[in-house]
């Protein structure tokens, strides 16, 4: 009895997808307007427009600096009609959101706009590294 290489590849692909979905977490995301500098991690060094600040839940004493998360919108966190857009965005953690952070991840407006309508203001997201 032999193995069909195509079947083995398909099974590996399915298992990989299931593992990546299993490691995704959910939380709320909000956004902040530019400029995105200075930041807690990089000072005045510009790290682009697809950046984020994170709350205590992810900050880990600054170990989150430079960490990249793939973020997608799951649903609105308020009554905004059609808050989510299809797809995801990869952001780099550049800042710490200490007070007044209404989400686990505070996305740059550029990043938020890729996955959600900015008029929604606050959305439930799925994120993973």
Describe what this molecule looks like in 3D:
Residues 27-129 form the Expansin-like EG45 domain. This is EG45-LIKE DOMAIN CONTAINING PROTEIN 2. Its main location: secreted. The protein is α/β, with parallel strands linked by helices and 129 residues long. Helix content is 22%, strand content 31%. It has a 6-stranded mixed barrel with strand order 1-5-2-4-3-6. The N and C termini lie far apart (39 Å).
Radius of gyration: 17 Å
- Beta content comes to 25-35%
| End-to-end gap | 39 Å
Could you list the spans in which at least 5 consecutive residues all have pLDDT below 50?
A: 15-21
Helix content: 10-25%
Q: Note the main sheet.
A: 6 strands, mixed, barrel
Order of helices and strands: HEEHEEEHE
Mean pLDDT: 87
Globally, the shape reads globular
Q: With helices defined by DSSP (H or I, 4 residues minimum), what is the helix count?
A: 3
Strand arrangement, major sheet: 1-5-2-4-3-6
Q: Please count the beta strands (DSSP E, at least 2 residues each).
A: 6
Task: State the secondary-structure class.
Answer: alpha/beta
Main location: secreted
Protein name: EG45-LIKE DOMAIN CONTAINING PROTEIN 2
Pfam families: DPBB_1 (PF03330)
Subcellular location: Secreted
